[in-house]
Design a protein that fits this description.
By secondary structure, the protein is an alpha/beta fold. Helices cover 37% and strands 15% of the residues.
Length: 183
């Protein structure tokens, strides 16, 4: 049976490189993992007052989709040497109300992507900080920094580089093993 992996994409942009990579990862997944996208763009900014009584429907939907997953995969660009605000908001929404975090104990991995040379290194490592606090075991190796991502995709957003396909396939296999160690 395959592990159910919730995939969160940090970029909300139509035509996002991060979304394209996430979509390609889903096609590369082995029989050990099933990747499903969990949307974060419609989540209202976290405000504890909104958790009193009935929280926003988007929060309830999001929390339900995460709590049912075996693991979480983040695919993110880098904004100002950090993660996009939408991704940080999703972490906050899922971690509250206090004592009811949907993240606790979920194995996780990060793929960061950039049209530049650094592969969103800053975002990748910035994201690790809250994940440690949220008690999410983060896969250490292999690390996935996808540099010059625009050169790796064809006009339809499909991976056109065999080395990148092979690397990401291996990354997913390692993630499946990581999930198994922590489930």
């Amino acid at each position: 049976m395959a592990y159910d992996v919730a995939v969160l994409v940090g970029s909300l942009r139509k035509g996002s490189f991060s979304r394209a990579v996430a979509d390609n990862l889903a096609t590369l997944a082995t029989d050990k993992v099933t990747l499903r996208s969990v949307e974060i763009g419609e989540l209202p900014l976290y405000n504890p007052d909104l958790d009193e009584g009935t929280p926003p429907a988007a929060w309830a939907r999001f929390r339900s989709e995460i709590v049912g997953a075996d693991a979480v995969l983040f695919v993110t660009p880098e904004y100002n040497r950090s993660i996009p605000g939408s991704l940080k908001n999703a972490l906050d929404v899922g971690s509250r109300p206090y004592g009811h975090s949907v993240w606790k104990g979920k194995p996780t991995a990060i793929v960061s992507v950039s049209p530049g040379l650094l592969g969103a290194f800053g975002a990748n490592h910035h994201l690790r900080q809250p994940l440690v606090f949220l008690d999410m075991p983060v896969m250490q190796q292999p690390e996935a920094y996808v540099s010059k991502v625009g050169d790796l995709l064809d006009k339809d957003g499909k991976l056109a580089n065999d080395d990148t396909k092979a690397f990401l396939t291996g990354f997913l296999a390692a993630f499946a093993t990581w999930i198994g160690k922590h489930k």
